[in-house]
Amino acid sequence: MKDYRFIGKATTRKDALDIVTGKTKFINDLSFPNMLYAKVLRSPFPHALIKSIDTAKAMKLPGVKAVLTYKDIPDWMGGLPRHVRVLDSKVRYVGDAVALVAAETEEIGEEALRLIIVEYEPLPAVYDVEEAMQPEAPQLYEQFPGNVLPRGIRVFGPNPLQEVVIGDIDQGIAEADFIVEGTYSYENIPNPLPPESPGAIAVWEGEDTLTVWSASQGPHILKVALQKMMGSSNVRSMGSPVGGSYGSKYMSWQYVFPAAALAKATRRPVKICYGRAEQLAAFTVRLGSRIHGKVGMKMDGSVTFLEGDWFVNTGAFSEMAQGMVAVGCGEAQLMLKCANWNLKPKVVCTNRTASGQVRGFGGQELKCALVPILTLGMEKANIDPVDFFKKNYVKPGEGYYWRDGEWWVSKGIDFTNAIEEGARVFGWQEKWQGWLKPSSVEGTKRRGVGVGVHGNADVGEDVSEAFVRLDPDGKAIIYSGLAEHGTGQRSNICKMVAEILQIPLEWVSVTAADSSINPFEFGPVGSRGTYAIGSAVIEAAEKAKKQLFDLMAPKFKVTPEELETVNGMVYVKGKDEEKLPWIAGLGYHGTCLGRGRFQPDFTLPNFMMIFTEVEVDTETGKVDLIKVVSATDVGQIIDPPSLINQLNGCLGSAGIDSALFEETVLDTRLGRIMNPNMIDYKWRTFAELPEMEHAILETPFPSHRFHAIGVGEIAPSPGPSAVLMAVANAIGVRIYDYPLTPDKILSALGKMDTLKKGGRG
Amino acid sequence: MGEINRSPYESTITLTVNGDTHLFRLGEGCHEVSPSHTLAFTLRERLGLTGTKISCDRGACGCCTVMMDGKAVLSCMLLTVECEEKVISTIEGLGDPITGSIDPIQQSFIDHTAFQCGFCTPGIIMSTKALLTENPSPTRGEVQEALAGNFCRCNSHYHVLDAVMAVTRKGG
């Protein structure tokens, strides 16, 4: 393996000093002179028509500058397809926006909310995804009969993947040694719950130029999206450091629009920052996922067909559900070699807070329900799940339909070595005792192991552009619309540029994520940071270097190809006794600028396997997570501590803890979320950490100059189904949904009569 | 605090933060401190010390942790008016104000990349500072207990524990 100067070495994050000294300015740390604060009046009903709103009293409160209702809100539309107004005459979940207030202080704004008088006509509500599709079910939108959303997502192309229909199911049935069938669901809608709640500041110049500072994970794509949703307005989007997102703050119109509307009405800067209850009960959560599936298998673990209905509960509106379905359908094929498929998704809206993008992006929601159905077959054939996944995970040369509906063939690598290394580190052979059998039993404590798998072909999704500017003093500036959301990606692109230009890391910087100065950037999503964003930056740096060498070559009387540069000095390769600084080529008043552009490439699937060991107390029903090992192959590590941090992110709502205790509890009588605070919404603390190890291989990928790919999106996704398997093995009984709270364990063990909640048993 | 001249006709409050003493009039005006204001609000909105973060605003997540008389406290659960005569330190007050050097805990967090998004980091560092002030050589388990009230959503826990333990070893 090549020894680089920066790549693969642990280097200090560029933003580290500001972070540890509290100087990093998150969105709520910014303020502007004359700024107002936005507050949102939210519906107490899950489904109702607004018969009247009286805002007169609120408007009279000193310090209130604007009150907006559906009658005077701009006609901006969000959602997929466009179906979500900022304010509407109908509310569709408890927490839906009813009116907006702009006031001099937050306290005055809150007081004004109490003075708005609203008369509602309550309507019947529906929460269960299959009940919502029944003919007599309440209808959320006139244009979506049966509450089923139309398929498709234009940005993925004219023919996006919306189902997996391949081969001939009858033939698969004929070839099968046996068929298994089951229903599993992942419907506990865990909340990504970034510590920084969603927030934005909106400022208008004149009638048609809007500047937005936001905590968006993708500030440049936010500009593009806002302009489309708002019509002709010219939007400038300023990315702030993101205080956690996990996907949820990627598309941010839900909270930007209220601030923008109030700023337009008052002609003053308006800040909006959600409170924690708003974030937990009125911001986007994970999709609900339920699958009725049927699988045909041979005794050797080959799958002859897979047929199923995938019910996707998107809540009150679809923010991106069809896109997540597209990616999920692609990811199912990466995991499972199978000639005959008929997997039919239905995206359905119901009367709870909407679902949006969350780390795992559809594939995780699908896998959490689909993998357990496959395990029914593995159990019947008595196949070790590690062997099953090894046999069935996509190999180089094998193909899959990806999100654009096109057939792609993997040019990546074989992950067999990563699987074997993960199993070795975990001690799988010693711990695996067969299906529904514990690894060990000690009194009331039973231990079990489970494994999950995930991967996507999104490491090369979408377009990234970057410029790299070389300055006469040997410094380089990257023009990129990339926001830092915790992965260290802004520092990592500096490492790539420093490596190419062979200058100290301190000499490389990145522009602010300002859409008015930077070229197009889709954002750090889908594990695309290393390959897609990195490739654009690498190309820009290479081109800038070439321009520099073109300028310098005549001074050495050689061709540009014969030159090399280290630490801001240029010389002829092999003859470093004669050197000239960059300024000799650029001049005092010159720079050169390279441009890089990455075009989508879906040929490089990544891979993640998670091994888990749990201990179940059969007296109390409590499940403890004992050990976690994740296994992957990243081609080339860019920054070791940042990668380990990302892999440790397999805990939390994005992953394993959504199988153990994280859930949004919906009261289906009133439609209210019962735990919108951080005491009743459970989260893992420092005091409860499992043993954690990672098996990380570095087999060079045919990606970019450093042969690396990203794994951020997929790091947590195999976790929940691995835990479900581990618990089933520990207690010898299967449980069909998440999370595995003590009541479900005791109920499965026959120690409790009924399930308290969930309704499906 | 003796140099600040209190008016006998007005209700005022003095706050000592990071060694500086500030005098506020009590009231609802835009430069005043209201009896309903939390310490977190006053630090951020009146003193501009935005390193102290407000996250849950209900005492559950530890993001707003500061030190008061050497102990870690949740500044979103204290009213500012309760904090008179107390010595308060925030993340901005760590390190040496003369040399500008940062606290060894902060340096260790940098060296171990003991953060991802960094939003919860100031609170975690302040909890750590309070722990090490009281107990300079805690076990890893004691550090875990001391930080159990600090929410970290990116799962940087393991690197944080490594960073803290590295400082405790140095401190003996």
Distance between the termini of chain B: 36 Å
Major sheet characteristics of chain B: 5 strands, mixed
Q: Radius of gyration of chain A, rounded?
A: 27 Å
The greatest interface here is: A-B, 59 and 56 residues
Keywords (chain A): Molybdenum, Oxidoreductase
Domain Aldehyde oxidase/xanthine dehydrogenase a/b hammerhead (chain A): 21-124
Pfam family, one (chain A): Ald_Xan_dh_C
GO molecular function, one term (chain A): iron ion binding
Give structural notes.
The complex is a heterodimer of chains A (761) and B (172). By secondary structure, chain A is α+β, with helices and mostly antiparallel strands. Chain A folds into 3 domains: 16-24 and 462-598, Aldehyde oxidase/xanthine dehydrogenase, molybdopterin binding domain (Aldehyde Oxidoreductase, domain 4, 2-Layer Sandwich), CATH 3.30.365.10; 31-123 and 195-244 and 249-282, Aldehyde oxidase/xanthine dehydrogenase, a/b hammerhead (Aldehyde Oxidoreductase, domain 3, Alpha-Beta Complex), CATH 3.90.1170.50; 288-459 and 603-748, Aldehyde oxidase/xanthine dehydrogenase, molybdopterin binding domain (Aldehyde Oxidoreductase, domain 4), CATH 3.30.365.10. Chain A is built from 19 helices and 33 strands. In chain A, the strands form 9 sheets. In chain A, strands 3-7-1-14-11-12-13 form a 7-stranded mixed beta sheet, sandwiched between helices. The model of chain A has no long low-confidence stretch (mean pLDDT 96). Chain B has 2 domains: 12-91, Ubiquitin-like (UB roll); 104-171, DNA polymerase, domain 1 (Orthogonal Bundle). In chain B, helix 2 (104-111) crosses helix 5. By secondary structure, chain B is of the alpha+beta class. Chain B has helices spanning 39-46, 104-111, 121-134, 140-146, 157-171, and strands at residues 12-17, 20-25, 65-68, 71-74, 87-89. Mean pLDDT of chain B is 93; it is low at 1-6. Chain B has a 5-stranded mixed beta sheet with strand order 2-1-5-3-4, with helices on one face. The longest helix of chain B has 15 residues, at 157-171. Chain B has 5 helices and 5 strands. Chains A and B meet through helix 1 and helix 16 of A and helix 2, helix 3, helix 4 and helix 5 of B.
